[in-house]
From TrEMBL:
This is G-protein coupled receptors family 1 profile domain-containing protein. Coiled coil: none annotated. PANTHER family: G-PROTEIN COUPLED RECEPTORS FAMILY 1 PROFILE DOMAIN-CONTAINING PROTEIN (PTHR46709:SF12), PROTEIN CBG23488-RELATED (PTHR46709). Its main location: membrane. It is found in: Membrane. GO terms for cellular component: membrane. Keywords: Membrane, Transmembrane, Transmembrane helix. SUPFAM superfamilies: Family A G protein-coupled receptor-like.
Length: 376
């Protein structure tokens, strides 16, 4: 029997979901996440901060959106517009593109988990200012290595068959080899690789929100007493912006990957329900799940841009070429500014050390006013 990627009634539906909406949103996602990755990974003030992992989340999302176009949009559009030569090129690179897409997606999720862990520890322990840069790089390397290992040995193996007696697009049959058939352990690893980060993000970010609500009032009082009213207002604003951004990003990820998680769990429990009993519904559900993933990637840029005024200012400087670029400031000064807003106890020690150097010998005890910052 000859095959076709767009069969029967799914011809128009798949073209709209993948060929039109998916292609458009993927291109937008490449632009948006490319801008985020450029900002977070090229500016020292962000690269040496908890934004380090979010920068690589944006980087892998950029690659994921680009791979979406090559892996899913190209064959659908090629068949719809009857460009058989493009389809043949896609067939040749299909296995590599499929593996890369899975690796990029899992690497992005692992970086998101690492960012949530760092933020959780910072919220729980007041004196913790974030991981050391060496620790961040080691965590990133471990996350990418784990993603490659999991997807290399537990992801579904694509099968491309050339059917005799058929011509055109129907000559090629593209399917997947079930990983749970004779490989229950690999199927379990594949399922856990999706479900464990999903529920880990729920627990970590739920804990962050609860701790911020409990500690906000006490921290504000300590900040005001040690640094003054103006710094307290700045810190409240930073906490509110960081919390809003985090909630939106994680919520978008959870919603966009909920359908994918459900499909993986159902397929692991009983593969025949989807592949044999409801093949058309399964195919359309996979397309919608892929589209939701792209939508979740696109949402992250507006989440950062709308909820963080500093990021808006940095984008303005980066895109408009403002000479007063924050990149010119030393990274240690930027980190100290961040510490003053987020860690009152560390801030007090820093301020005491700074003021001790400028106190005159005849005045060994600095006044309370000298402990206050002269500028923000």
């Amino acid at each position: 029997m000859c095959s076709s990627l767009l069969e029967g009634r799914l011809f128009l539906e798949r073209f709209i979901v993948i060929g039109v909406l998916g292609s458009f949103l993927s291109v937008i996602g490449v632009i948006f996440n490319g801008l985020l990755a450029t900002l977070f990974l090229t500016r020292s003030s962000y690269r040496h901060s908890p934004f380090f992992f979010l920068g690589f989340v944006a980087f892998f999302d950029t690659l994921l959106d680009a791979t979406f176009v090559l892996l899913l949009s190209v064959p659908v559009n090629a068949q719809f517009y009857d460009t058989y030569s493009v389809f043949l090129v896609w067939i040749e690179y299909l296995p590599v593109l499929h593996l890369l897409m899975q690796i990029f997606k899992l690497s992005s999720v692992f970086c998101l988990v690492a960012a949530s862990i760092e933020r959780y520890i910072m919220t729980r322990h007041w004196t913790f200012t974030g991981f050391e840069q060496r620790t961040r790089w080691l965590a990133l390397t471990g996350a990418v290595t784990l993603a490659v290992f999991i997807k290399k040995y537990s992801s579904e193996e694509l099968i491309v068959q050339e059917l005799e007696g058929c011509s055109g697009f129907g000559r090629w049959l593209v399917g997947s080899k079930p990983i749970s058939s004779g490989h229950d352990l690999l199927g379990l690893v594949h399922t856990l690789a999706i479900s464990v980060p999903f529920f880990t993000l729920i627990l970590l970010n739920g804990g962050i929100v609860l701790m911020l609500k409990k500690q906000n009032q006490l921290r504000s009082l300590i900040t005001e007493l040690t640094l003054g009213h103006d710094v307290m207002k700045m810190r409240k604003k930073n906490i509110r912006q960081a919390t809003q951004t985090l909630i939106v990003i994680i919520t978008a990820y959870l919603i966009s990957n909920l359908l994918t998680l459900c499909l993986i769990l159902i397929e692991y429990i009983d593969r025949d329900i989807l592949h044999q009993d409801h093949p058309d519904l399964h195919r359309l559900a996979l397309d919608i799940a892929s589209l939701l993933t792209v939508i979740g990637n696109v949402i992250r840029f507006p989440a950062h841009f709308c909820s963080n005024s500093d990021i808006r200012q940095q984008f303005k400087q980066m895109l408009c070429g403002d000479k007063r670029d924050m990149k010119s400031l030393p990274s240690n000064r930027m980190r100290r500014m961040s510490e003053k807003c987020d860690n009152p106890w560390v801030t007090l020690l820093l301020r005491v050390n700074e003021t001790t150097d400028v106190v005159a010998p005849e005045d060994p005890i600095p006044s309370r006013q000298s402990l206050l910052p002269t500028r923000l």
